[in-house]
Amino acid sequence: MNKEEKKSEVQNVVGEGTDSFAIVGIGASAGGLAAFEAFFSGMPADTDPNMAIVLVQHLDPDHKSLLADLIRRRTRMQVFEVEDGMMVRPNCAYIIPPNRDMAFLNGTLQLLEPSSPRGQRMPIDFFFRSLAHDQQERAICVVLSGTGSDGTLGVRDIKEEGGIVIVQTPESAEFDGMPRSVISTGMADYVLDPDKMPSQIIGYTSHAFDKLSRSFTAAALSDEASLKKIFILLRSQVGHDFSQYKEKTIMRRIQRRMAVNQIDTLERYTKYLQQMPMEVNALFDDLLIGVTYFFRDPEAFKSLEEQVIPLLFVNKNTGDDIRVWSAGCSTGEEAYSLAILLAEHQEKLKKSFKIQVFATDIDSNAIATARTGIYPSSIEADISQERLSRFFVNEQESNKYRICKSIRDTIVFSEQDLIKDPPFSKMDLICCRNLLIYMNRDLQKKIIPLFHYSLNPGGFLFLGASGSISYLNAYFSVLDRKSKIYQRKEDFHSSQNVNPSPFLLLKTDITTMQPAKKNSIPEKPSLRELTETMLLQYVTPAAVLVNSQGDILYIHGRTGMYLEPTPGEAGVNNIIKMAREGLQRDLTVSLHKAVGGKELVQCPGLSIKTNDHTYTINLTVRPVMSELNGKSENSLYLITLEEAPNLELRSQQITAALNSIVGEDEFNLKDAEAQILTLKQELRAKDEYLYTTKEELETSNEELKSSNEELQSVNEELQSTNEELETSKEELQSVNEELATVNAELQTKVVDLGQANNDMNNLLAGTGIGTVFVDVDLHILRFTPSVTQIINLIQSDVGRPVGHIVSNLVEYNNLVEDTQAVLDTLVPKEMEVQTNSGTWYAMRIQPYRTLDNVIEGAVVTFADITSSINLQKALRLNEERLRVALKVSPVMVFNQDEKLCYTWVYNPNAAFSSYSIIGKTDHDILTAEEASRLSVIKKQVLESGVGFRSEVFISTNGKQLSYNLTVDPLYDISDGIIGITGVLMASTN
What we know:
alpha/beta
């Protein structure tokens, strides 16, 4: 699934998607609380920022985080502690809960159980990687205060996907380990104080994400003149030429840098590059594509393991070299993956070979990372547990994996430009999966012959799954098309195959781009070169290099006397078809013998006809590559053709010369002929020896060149090893980071608790309620000052049993027993007690419960109720007086609610009980006529609020009597009418 399809799928899941707002991931560790507060202080105070913020911090897994409460005080945004599957919304902040890893997927936050033990977790790296893979170039990450290096590897993924990285300035951080670690990678786009970050993020998102700001892109990036100037600036400052990389890749990376710097046109960005050399380096870093991980594309690596790796060991003896080149290795995961496969197969064969993996890349920072061989715990998702335990060492202190020494020693890392630096040679396998797909066709056509030259006959090429490489079939045959595995051809035909080193062609093309030096004087050839050139031109016989089928690969010297082109379409030139009359049959037989037996075949004295003349020639077929490769179909053969001397004429000349010297009678012609034949054989043997020696010398020169290049790489590796030995360990461990984080939160909480304690003390002192706190053993924990008037307590009594303290209570000595009963039953107890001074208190004993509903003691409170007691006594006295007065008077007093139901009645002289009419209305106790008449009167009082006084007639015991009725509204404390109160007294008339 490509990126566009992935984005479409995300929007289908979350509806509107996250394209309408930015998502910012913030990682922090020790000292992060102050950095968070500073960050949110820089957020807009009166407008919504239209972004979602996700905070990831190292938290103690056993401690409840207070971060959400603390952040709410600093921002107008809604703050949530993340729950599994929570949808991300704009203008909200989300905080990771303790003891969880968190990932971003399709607009939601997913919580996972930590896979690493405490102290080895990298939650920031884990979240940044998921954010990068989900949001690609829209990913934004912020690294704040903290020790260690968590977040550094996650930042790599953010940059690889085209996102931006913002880092806190080390000077403003309480702990600068994490910021400095990210800054050292060179991947930080902005290095700012936390309070300045929000405005920078808002400016970037408005420039990079808004539709209006993106509309300029097509026109801006079509400025070819400015684009060429950018290539020139890159080549002059960093020494690398990107003009032959794919246009879309270059455009996307330049657009990202323009968004980072908030520049609208390519012309302005070109001027900015000229004025700011540091921006050239930043653009160069962005152009270096480094997407890689262990066993990337498992199916392809499975095919490599099954189809190619075993073939590398075929016809190899114990101690032989197995040579592999990982071109464009990035941070080394691919090279280590290849080394692991080779080590596994070597162990399966139970033999020992000399495995060498050469890993190269243009990115010096990536090579430095690869040389360390240290990777985060997140590689557990890419490597099986078996391989992790066999080939990696788990460094629990830093929560990382280090490649084992046996694998590390097989790899040589070096910085190399594939375009302009010399290639390696005699390789059995070349792996290039991260580079060719970003180059255009012209550059690919130069790189492919270089790989062909670097491989041994029958060697293999392993390419990436994306993209198609042009000009490949001419040099390589397909072994596995799906996995992009190819094998070197030996019978390729192209205009370039006459050159034994494609690097010379590549080098020539590239160097012609550079201006020629003025007044350059060509170097004079040495005497050795001059002599060898003349010998090759006039002394050595004509020779043809062919493959096992007779196809011509290289021609030396004049061969017109022996060969002629065949009529018809010009295609593959085959020496059998081109042989002249008299040569074809013997040439066919000799070549067949040489191919079958891998041995030298000679055919002297062959007669051939050329232009009506007959010549005698000697034919020799010699295998030239059988020692390098046991496969006959891939071997090459050198066919030499030389004219044989005329023995009869030569014999006559020699005879005449000898006769003139020693006389005819002293010379035996037959003996002379035998000596001449012997001398000719010796001369031919020496010629063959010299020719062989020359070939061996040329081969040795090539080996020395390759060895020199390898020694240079080894020297670089030794320098890197020396740097590795000087590298220090992490500043602090993850547990210390958690403790520092918790300490910062607790310090803030202590301040809050101190303020709350002061508020509570003032509250209790202001209410005058005496309070004593005791534990489950009835020992005094604390008390308020006002309780000392009731119980004789001083500050030194804290910790003493409450039973040892003398109280001032009258006739109450059961405080211990009552408190213990409350603890046993959890039922509060209340009572009224009096002190010796006559003051009354409402004493209440209740359990002391924590927020977790745990009983940790009891609370005894004393509320002064003396005034209430005195008021109650006065009320009871007044009630008694009223009762006596009413008892001797023929008066009925009553209250009714708004529905005219009786709520209180006092009528000591009534024939029926007052309680029998409570809750009833007049219709329940009187006749319908009387009840209706009274209801009208009472409703009028309820509605008008005006009292009523009149004479009424009510039937009692069958007699109709006259009463004086007084009805007034009944008010509550807020002067609202809640009913009526009335007095009914018998008339004296």
